[in-house]
């Protein structure tokens, strides 16, 4: 982290969503809709946003909640969140997921989005949530579906399949409502105001490409120790504009790049083949030279003398 004119600049790692780097991207939309979907659950509640990162989500929750604690292990993230997203009903603090700096039975709703996969001792993490959550409290947890993501994300210590995640959560919460987050290419028709501005709208939505099997990217569970009275309403976020021209240009650039690499590799192979031909010719000339033949005669003579 660096400071310019006393303004905190948070590093863009690509794993943590920082709106100033990501507005208009698919990553931005994926992260924001999780918090939008959570808003009905936090109305007038005391809330913990654990692993709050840059703080944008904590700020969103605070528009409905009575009080929101934003806790993150990274002190730089906490400083950034305070500066960018602080408000009168928000308290940001540094803390670990397995040692949450809050009192027992003090929180109505725990929000933990894209966190559990980063925690080595995730069972202790859930025990900590159990500790600070009120007896009638709610847990909202989301995490990537390991079947849909490429292996090798060094930020993730463990990724879950659906049954595995439920089995981990179940000992702490008798009631679990399962929701899922998927990502599609989206097309929309609207006036200029709708098309050209960041906004939240209630619009008629049709799903023409339903997901099959376990194609959804993320699990989104609502968990409680008593029957859950609130249902999650679907939320859709449009992210990352699709341009046919830009897409085709990107394909053309990619193909041109691949063709250049192919030609370079072909030229290199031809150069090696020519070197091999030259080396074979040099060896043939050497074998046929008088010097080589004389050396062979001398070598054979020495061998015969040594064997007598």
Write up what this structure looks like.
With 308 residues, the protein is an alpha/beta fold. The chain folds into 2 domains: 2-242, Rossmann fold; 247-307. 40% of the residues lie in helices and 18% in strands. The protein contains 9 helices and 9 strands. The chain has helices spanning 19-22, 26-38, 56-62, 75-85, 122-132, 162-169, 192-196, 244-288, 290-307; strands at residues 2-4, 7-9, 46-50, 67-72, 90-94, 107-113, 133-144, 175-181, 218-224. The radius of gyration is 31 Å and the shape is elongated. The model is unreliable at 1-6 (pLDDT under 50).
Q: How many β strands by DSSP?
A: 9
Shape: elongated
CATH topology of the largest domain: Rossmann fold
Classify the oligomer: single chain
Please indicate the count of domains. Answer: 2
Helix content: 25-40%
Strand order of the largest sheet: 5-4-3-6-7-9-8
H/E element order: EEHHEHEHEEHEHEHEHH
Overall mean pLDDT score? 87
CATH architecture of the largest domain: 3-Layer(aba) Sandwich
């Amino acid at each position: 982290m660096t400071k310019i004119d006393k303004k905190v600049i948070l590093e863009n790692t690509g794993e943590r969503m920082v709106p100033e780097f990501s507005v208009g991207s698919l990553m931005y939309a994926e992260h924001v809709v999780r918090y939008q979907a959570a808003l009905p659950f936090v109305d007038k509640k005391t809330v913990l946003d654990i692993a709050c990162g840059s703080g944008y989500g904590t700020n969103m929750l605070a528009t409905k909640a009575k009080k929101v604690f934003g806790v993150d292990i990274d002190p730089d993230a906490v400083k950034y969140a305070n500066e960018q997203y602080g408000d009168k009903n928000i308290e940001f603090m540094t803390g670990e997921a397995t040692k949450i700096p809050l009192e027992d039975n003090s929180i109505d709703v725990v929000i933990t989005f894209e966190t559990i996969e980063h925690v080595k001792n995730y069972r202790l993490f859930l025990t900590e949530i159990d500790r600070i959550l009120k007896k009638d409290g709610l847990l909202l947890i989301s995490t990537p579906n390991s079947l849909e993501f490429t292996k090798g994300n060094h930020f993730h210590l463990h990724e879950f399949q659906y049954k595995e995640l439920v089995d981990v959560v179940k000992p702490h919460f008798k009631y679990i409502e399962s929701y899922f987050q998927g990502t599609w290419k989206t097309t929309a028709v609207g006036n200029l105001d709708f098309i050209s501005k960041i906004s939240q709208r209630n619009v008629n939505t049709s799903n023409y490409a339903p997901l099959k099997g376990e194609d959804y990217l993320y699990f989104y569970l609502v968990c409680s120790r008593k029957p859950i009275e609130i249902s999650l309403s679907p939320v859709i976020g449009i992210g990352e504009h699709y341009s046919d021209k830009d897409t085709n240009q990107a394909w053309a650039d990619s193909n041109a790049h691949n063709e250049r690499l192919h030609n370079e590799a072909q030229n290199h192979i031809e150069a090696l083949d020519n070197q091999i031909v030259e080396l074979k010719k040099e060896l043939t000339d050497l074998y046929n030279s008088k010097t080589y033949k004389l050396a062979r005669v001398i070598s054979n003579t020495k061998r015969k003398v040594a064997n007598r």
